[in-house]
Amino acid sequence: MKTKAIFTILFLFFLTDTISAFAAPKINTFERPPVGNAYPLSQWSFDGWDAPWDTGMSNRTMIDNTYSHTGGKSLRIFYPKDKIGPPDSGALAPFAVTPAKEYYLSYWLRFSSDFSWGTTQFAGKVGLGLAGGGACSGGDVCTGYNGFSSRMVWLSGGRAAIYYYHMDHAGTYGDLKVLKNNGQDIVYQKGQWINIVQRLKVNSVTNGQANPDGEIDIWYNGVPAASVTGLRFVRNTDLVDKAYFSTFFGGATTEFAPANNSYMWYDDIKVSTNSSEICELSAGGCFQRLFQAEDYNIMKGIVTGPTSDIGGGQKVGSIDSTDWIAFSSVQIPTSGTYLVEYRVASPNSNGKLSLDLNGGATALGMVDIPNTGSWSSYRTISHTVPISAGTYQFGLYAATGGFDINWWKITKLY
Q: Considering only CA atoms, which of 328, 316, 341 is closest in space to residue 398?
């Protein structure tokens, strides 16, 4: 009986460790909330992201459709002129993730074209980072019992760097490592989407002593940009348990404040313990394919004609209920979760579009077509669907008609 009890404890230990090692990925594409609204913690929670506190999420965030990396929306964050620090600039929230020894974090961001790096001093936090335990930061001495943190920052001229707190940080504050590409400092580019991927592995602990085997890696637009090894983060059982949204203008004086109102947009945030679920790290990046609606192979009941949408070209119109278009021999290279987008126009409010495979053999999901205002006013709508690797005929079926389609697109999320 004693042996059986010990075996059961060991089994549960290894089971728990396995679950921790392969925690389900978290993702946020910001497609659900309505445009123009703030995105407070209650809305984050609705989308599966929970934090015990925040600053700025209620009054300096907005769901925006001005720019998006995928889909039609993104999260815009405001950095007011002459303001510094979390109470008055940007946003903070320590979002909980299932504790694990190693995590990958990916997100896309876009700096406003006139983003100010500061006034006469230059430093600030960018996007999200990874942290655990007490998330040692803010000039704290990291003892191995009060956690750790690792976040992206900008320096003078917009240079990109990783800023991390560990047991052996050299000064009062955390250590920095500037991102490099072919030996040259990487500078954040304004007015375009940038991808940051961070990996953090917590060090091992032997008899209460921290072993120097913790690691941080950073990729910038899919290319390795920084690697830090030999780190000691903890001497207890703390693991990575936070995707730490931490973005604001730093420094102790208004010399660090932006010279003008500045903004960043964030999209496609992903956190996973499995690198294969971060498709930004795959060769060629995340699989994406755009289909012009008029390039269907077979159809029922539709007509094509010129469109006034951005980019011009042809649209598929006269879509009534039970009409459809199908696209043959579409190859999906890897199984995963995909974002499917549709560029639609309609003066009606009850349209429904269904996506299926192989003549309706597999239904992937249905989306509502919104009233966009007119036949000439287009909007991008989307949903996420699981698709297995393979070659398929994709069908777009009007469960309820009354809309036009200009194009549709598939993008792998993870």
A: 316
Give the position of tokens 């990958």. 104
Structure tokens at 399: 């469960």
User: How many whole angstroms separate alpha carbon 399 and alpha carbon 381?
Assistant: 16
Instruction: Tell me which amino acid residue 346 is.
Output: S
96-110, pLDDT tens digit by residue?
Answer: 999 999 999 999 999
Query: If residue 63 lies in a helix (H) or strand (E), which one and from where to where?
Result: strand 61-64
pLDDT at 210 over 60: yes
Contact 298, 376 (CB under 8 A): no
- Radius of gyration of the chain from its Cα atoms, rounded to whole angstroms: 24
Q: For the chain, how long is the longest CA-to-CA vector?
A: 78
Give the model confidence (pLDDT) of 337-348 as tens digits.
999 999 999 999
Percent of the chain with pLDDT over 70: 94
Q: Strand 160-165's sheet: what is its strand order?
A: 91-100, 240-247, 124-132, 148-154, 160-165, 175-178
**pLDDT tens digits, one per residue of 74-125:** 999 999 999 999 999 999 999 999 999 999 999 999 999 999 999 999 999 9
Say if residues 267 and 70 touch (Cβ distance below 8 Å): yes
Which residue bears the tokens 């809309």?
Answer: 403
Quick one: how many helices (H) and strands (E) in the chain?
2, 29
Contacts of 103 (CB under 8 A, 6+ apart): 97, 130, 199, 200, 240, 243, 271, 272, 273
**Contact status, residue 298 vs residue 143, Cβ threshold 8 Å:** no
- Average pLDDT rounded to a whole number, residues 46-58: 98
**Spacing of C-alpha 182 from chain mean position:** 26
